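Dear U.,

For the methods section draft, I wanted the exact inputs and outputs in one place so we can describe them consistently. I've listed the two proteins in the order they'll appear in the manuscript figures. Please don't edit the token lines directly; just add comments below if something needs changing.

First protein:
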Amino acid sequence: MPMELELPVFRAYRGTEPPRFASPAELECAKVLDYYDVAWAYEPRTFVLEEDADGRVTEAFTPDFYLPEQDLYVEITAMKQSLVTRKNRKLRKLRERYPDVKIKLFYRRDLERLAQHFHLDLAS
């Protein structure tokens, strides 16, 4: 369920509709990308991971961000370890099924370190 968050005006956002972030961590990531003028799109593609015998999708994965200039998908997680383990499994499946797709998982602490290093205020 997307959260209703106060959104800044994003300069580097490449989507057509305003992003509806699922978590504050995703908003923080968007702010970091925007701060550095890194072009980004929010959840632009869903990857099929598994299908049943009739071809119906039984498992899929939609990475949080796509950075078109780097041709890189980025997934953000600030979740508890049990859910992170499930997310890592999905990332492994994505890499097996789509070997040419580049994807990187960032933890909330990675964003916090970046913000600290570059003295970013992620709260505004």
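Second protein (the one for the lower panel):
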Amino acid sequence: MRSIISLRFSDLNGVLKEVLISEREFEKASSKGVWFDGSSIEGFARRYESDMMLMPDTTTHYVINGVKTYFCDVYKFGEPFEGDPRTILKKTLKEVEEKDDVTLIAAGELEFYVLRGGEPIDGGSYFDVSPRDKANELKVAIANKLLEAGIEWSSGHHEVGPGQNEIDILHDHGLRIADKTLLTKNIIKLVCESMDFKASFMPKPFYGKAGNGLHIHLSLWSGGENMFYDERDLYKLSSIAKNFIAGVFEHIDGITAIANPTINSYKRLGEFEAPKYVYWGMRNRDALIRIPEFHSKEEARIELRSPDPSSNPYLLFSAVMVAGLDGIRRNLEPPEPIEKDIYEHGIYKELPTLPLTLEKAIDALEGDKLLRKALGLAGENFLNLKRQEWMEYVTRKITDWERERYFDV
């Protein structure tokens, strides 16, 4: 009996898509691809140029409920489609690996709320255990499903918000982590629904409660060696790592449009340890880039804390990689690290901030020539989508707050 094969790919917003084929068809699809209508995918193509092909990446597969699952690259007219987010990341990483012998190793921390009837399922807080953590059994089910799928995870725990949880994906090659991030979100939602819960990755689903982040851990490797490690440095960080940090800071306004791509994203930044100010260090949890404590050369890395789960991981890793490499190639130096409380000592008054709205972030990305060149057609289509989203918001959305405040004016 022949089995079913799942082919997965992502639209510009990072929404996972699927085509199911038979095992017999997969043999042909591996060499010739599978046709699909690109005009039906957000940001891909217009009606009169809709024919596209999915080419499975057969180097790795996952298993979801017994179904072999492959991620795909999108092709158009026999060539990789430059509007496909995965194609952009694959191209970016391949160029660096071939030219500079440098590989991106990454990991991700996914935060999400577990809801029932639209409300958090418990009143628990950071690292709580059952019975305050009502999702304890759920997390065990998610962890088992991830292992069954072939996704290694490192930890899972209750987060700060009521009903809020976190699952951490173990480090891997940058492209694989992007794939695994989308698949992990999908698995979390599936497991939650199977247990009569709902998972939300919305950046800020509740006023006055912690938002959901997607903290990403990054390091560069060459010849089997971690390029971010230096035993002599106070932070055990190499000059290359600091150049990388400086490059991210140089382009952070444009990166923010990709790392925080929704209207709602900007209600999270600046609250409950989500960064707002552009600085780095080891102790402060609201630093934009934090240096986690590590005990070996292999563990040396930086943690970018601004991204949220609404971001497209392919575009996110592409933008951050290009920005960091720009810092390395130009030998940029980051500002001095800050270990004091920036509010208690008034330091925040002198620090640059992240863009305060999606509109400001879009403007910054539009003006960042390096990022736009790297993201190509995918970046242009992304900008157009976000411009439309912003205009729809400001012209159409009438909030309850507005009615309460202005109805009797």
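Candidate sentences for the figure legend, describing the second protein: The two ends are 70 Å apart (CA to CA). The first strand starts at residue 4 and ends at 10.

Thanks,
Y.
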